[in-house]
Design a protein that fits this description.
By secondary structure, the protein is mostly helical. It contains 17 helices and no strands. The longest helix is centred in the first third of the chain and has 33 residues, at 109-141. Its main location: membrane.
Length: 422
């Protein structure tokens, strides 16, 4: 049966093309995030400026999320994804131009900084469409019986691209400079666009095409907030990402606390994703459907402990290990959450449900970056990270105690039901 085959989803050609497209896109995207974080802190030496980057992305991503979900459910997914990638390539090109030596030499720091913030803002607008489109497209590429396996491979590919992007982002800053690194990112995004067109157009499964935006959004939001398993998983992950995120402050730790430079900065970023990749690939062999709720709670609790350990550390290798373990715990929680969403969401509502997910979790990455920057400004970087880890632990304990449905969630029956459908 599909559930016993760790390579079930890879037997579908279009899914492999999808993975390659996603790898190139996320590899470039994660490099771009690292490079911009480094450049902004280098220009300002102000941790709050890093928080503003997150704020500039979350404003459009959060406010457009529900509307984007409606558009996704009403649209053909392949072409919509291609349009988003094409527009994102112009943002990458703009960031390259803003960091080009000729521009930096003649423009003021404030002008360059505001230009970066503006492009990040438009990137947040596109971000609201990326998540729902990709989530919906996966379900149209593979049959239902391999949804969990496809979710694991897709998330693992995302993390693999993330780790390599983080690693090479730091190294490329050291080797060739910020502007040339951003030029490489532009090329990667264009390549991902080319591979997107190797995927065939997909049917629109929504039986209520032409439904008003108001009615469409109301149905999507109601579905999420009345499904305790989905709502609990999203809430738990949102709080963990909001308070437990350390990525926005890694440049501060690398430059001012651990004093390891751009190469060490790349290693710190990469260690998180390396841990995630290791745990995600492990879940392809050890399915997490049984007692999924308890496993989700435990994994995020371990994540919070690791974040606290990182905040207390002043030794580079201890920090790397703490981040690696936090990534491993986060990887397991991501696979469980994506599996819950894939198995519990009807086909015609995937765009809207994914949009609510992006509001809960995706946008909390940027809001978490702002929270981290503000907390670091007020408390100092180390205390800010410890505070975030502590809040994560308290959230896990509280939600685990109150949400019995999540605590006792088991996906085995859902898995078998989808297997029989095919």
């Amino acid at each position: 049966m599909a559930k016993n085959d760790p390579y079930a989803a890879l037997k579908y050609k279009e899914f492999n093309i999808f993975l390659l497209m996603r790898f190139l896109l996320i590899f470039g995207w994660s490099m771009q995030f690292i490079v911009i974080e480094w450049e902004v802190y280098s220009l300002t030496k102000d941790p709050l400026a890093l928080g503003i980057i997150g704020l500039m992305e979350i404003i459009p991503a959060f406010t457009m999320a529900l509307f984007a979900g409606h558009i996704v459910d009403q649209s053909e997914k392949r072409n919509l994804l291609a349009l988003c990638i094409a527009l994102f390539s112009f943002i990458s090109l703009g960031l390259f131009c803003l960091t080009w030596d000729a521009v930096v030499a003649n423009w003021s720091t404030k002008t360059i900084l505001y230009g970066i913030y503006t492009l990040v803002f438009f990137g947040g607008f596109l971000r609201s469409f990326f998540g729902p489109t990709i989530f919906s497209l996966i379900a149209l590429i593979v049959p239902k019986k391999v949804y969990p396996n496809a979710a694991t491979w897709s998330t693992s590919t995302w993390k693999a691209a993330n780790v390599l992007g983080a690693l090479f982002g730091g190294f490329f800053i050291h080797w060739i400079g910020v502007d040339k690194t951003l030029c490489i990112i532009f090329v990667l995004v264009v390549l991902s666009l080319i591979f997107t067109f190797r995927i065939k157009k997909k049917p629109i499964l929504n039986p209520k095409r032409g439904e008003s935006v108001k009615d469409s959004l109301a149905v999507g939001v109601k579905f999420v907030f009345t499904n305790k398993a989905i709502l609990g998983a999203l809430t738990l992950d949102m709080i963990a990402v909001l308070f437990g995120g350390t990525v926005a402050l890694l440049s501060v730790f690398a430059q001012d606390i651990l004093k390891v430079g751009s190469q060490g900065f790349g290693v710190l970023n990469a260690s998180i994703s390396l841990g995630s990749i290791a745990s995600m690939f492990l879940t392809t062999y050890l399915p997490i459907s049984k007692n999924a709720g308890k496993k989700l709670l435990v994994s995020i609790f371990i994540f919070g402990l690791c974040i606290i350990a990182f905040g207390l550390s002043s030794v580079f290798w201890v920090s790397v290990v703490a981040l690696f373990l936090s990534g491993a715990a986060d990887g397991i929680s991501m696979v469980i959450r994506q599996t819950i969403l894939q198995l519990k969401t009807p086909d015609e509502m995937r765009g809207r449900v994914s949009s609510v997910n992006s509001m809960f979790v995706g946008s909390s990455n940027e809001l978490g970056a702002f929270e981290s920057g503000l907390a670091a400004k007020l408390l100092g970087p180390a205390k800010a990270v410890v505070f975030g880890g502590t809040m994560t632990l308290l959230t896990v304990v509280g939600l685990g105690y109150k949400n019995k449905v999540l605590r006792e969630l088991d996906l085995t029956e859902d898995y078998e039901a989808h297997d029989k459908d095919d």
